[in-house]
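User: Hi! I have a protein structure encoded as tokens and I'd like to know what sequence might fold into it. I'm fairly new to this, so please keep things simple.
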């Protein structure tokens, strides 16, 4: 892994609750409302994988009906039309690991 990539991964710390075992990001390769999911997969999934090695991640660019995140194969979050940072914020609000400052 090149130093630049490692540095970028270490700077973007994204920790999720241990109960999360998988995140699948589905999106179309082209079309309206899909860019945020594509950018999320490219910009944020690598950091999620790096800081949460217990989570299996999958990005799938195919003819999905809508851009969506599937968490633990049970919860479907429709992310059609959302910006990649908004997708990350939604994920963190629901599943972000909180730390107590003592």
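Assistant: Happy to help. Inverse folding works backwards from shape to sequence: for each of the 102 positions I chose a residue that suits the local structure. Here it is:
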């Amino acid at each position: 892994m090149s130093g630049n990539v490692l540095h970028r991964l270490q700077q973007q710390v994204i920790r999720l609750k241990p109960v999360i075992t998988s995140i699948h990001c589905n999106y179309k390769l082209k079309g309206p409302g899909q860019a945020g999911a594509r950018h999320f997969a490219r910009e944020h999934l690598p950091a999620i994988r790096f800081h949460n090695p217990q989570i299996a991640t999958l990005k799938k660019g195919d003819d999905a009906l809508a851009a969506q995140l599937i968490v633990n194969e049970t919860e479907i979050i429709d992310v059609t039309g959302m910006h990649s940072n908004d997708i990350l914020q939604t994920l963190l609000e629901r599943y972000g690991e909180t730390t107590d400052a003592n």
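A useful reference point when you look it over: The CA atoms of residues 50 and 69 lie 18 Å apart. Feel free to ask if any position seems puzzling.
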